[in-house]
Write a structure and sequence with these properties.
This protein has 214 residues and is α/β, with parallel strands linked by helices. It has 5 helices and 9 strands. The chain is globular and about 40 Å long.
Length: 214
């Protein structure tokens, strides 16, 4: 049985501030399955064994969340990315490469390049699925207990948000038994995107949502 937690982080004015977490328990976790958490907040503040960065093919950082992850993690991430690019030339769409996570609250940073939306007939769904599946595969190979994703390709790459979440759901459906014991965290800063994840996962659970604050 697949379990689901939904977190909603309130904004803090300083690191020492108390953070309220609002979460909904859909049903209890199975012991032999993937655990799923949905968080609305800043992925650079989340603690996990691995954080998945939606990168560009140069791995040199950029704007948006990619740039924020590089800034939060510090220069050693960029140095490792440069070394990787010196060997492979560029990171292809759907490919995943690991580095250390610098100052982030993680052991690894998995860089993956999502597809640019071209109308849906250019293999975008398969490429997007590879980003998630390759990251899950790396997590299992390294015997990690948790991995954090944001919504890959759904920003400037133009992938329609609802279709992007459907790809995520299809990956979860195929991989939830292969990733027993792994906690998979989906983090979105946008409330609208967070709600799409809630709808996609909680809506299929067939259970009432209960609410607590801690």
């Amino acid at each position: 049985m697949m379990g689901l937690l939904v977190f909603d982080f309130c904004k803090c004015t300083a690191p020492a501030d108390f953070v309220q977490i609002l979460f909904f328990v859909v049903h209890s976790f199975g012991e032999d399955d993937m655990d799923i958490q949905l968080i609305q907040g800043d992925i650079t503040k989340v603690s996990a064994d691995a954080i998945v960065n939606a990168a560009n093919s140069s791995l040199m950082g950029g704007g948006g969340v990619d740039g924020a992850i590089h800034r939060a993690g510090g220069p050693e991430i960029l140095a490792e990315c440069r070394e990787i690019i010196s060997r492979i030339g560029s990171c292809n769409k759907g490919q995943v490469v690991p580095t250390s996570a610098g100052r982030l609250k993680a052991r690894y940073l998995f860089h993956t390049v999502g597809p640019v939306w071209q109308g849906g007939a250019a293999g975008e769904a398969e490429l997007l699925a590879r980003c998630y599946e390759g990251s899950l595969c790396l997590a299992m190979e390294r015997n990690l207990s948790s991995i954090t994703f944001r919504a890959i390709s759904s920003g400037v790459y133009g992938y329609p948000k609802e279709e992007a979440v459907q790809v995520v759901r299809s990956v979860v459906d195929r991989w939830h038994e292969k990733t027993a014991g792994l906690t998979v965290i989906f983090v979105n800063l946008s409330r609208d995107m967070h709600r799409l994840y809630e709808k996609m996962f909680a809506g299929d659970a067939g259970a009432n949502l209960s609410e607590r604050k801690i």
